[in-house]
Amino acid sequence: LISSATKSLRMEMEILEKKLQDAQLKVAEKDGDKEKEIQSLKRLISELEFQLTMEKSNNESFLDKLRKEIKHKSDELEKLTQEKTQLIHSLSQVQEENSLLQDTVRRECEERFELTAALGRAREQVLELRRLSGTLP
To answer: Phi and psi (nearest 5°) for 136?
Structure first.
């Protein structure tokens, strides 16, 4: 009976050892799979970090380019605004000068008209004097 029980226990022990070995193999396989997955995820993380770094670099470069362009446009706008202000000032001066010249021309035309009228009267007087002097001794 003891021999039979011992045999039965040995067989059960062998079965349990076999199950233990199978379970250890499965655990080792799972550990290996998990290690592979961990390595794969680490590579993926490295790739994504590299892509992120490149994107940040590209974005910073793009932002720098935009800042430079904005500064250039701002400087250009300021220059154009100054030119516009200067042109408006020049236009105002030219309009004022034009008004003065028009006024001067108007006065000179009036003077010329008066002088022409006076000259006409003087001619008439000279002609009258000549006609009178021709009849008078």
So the answer is: -95, 150
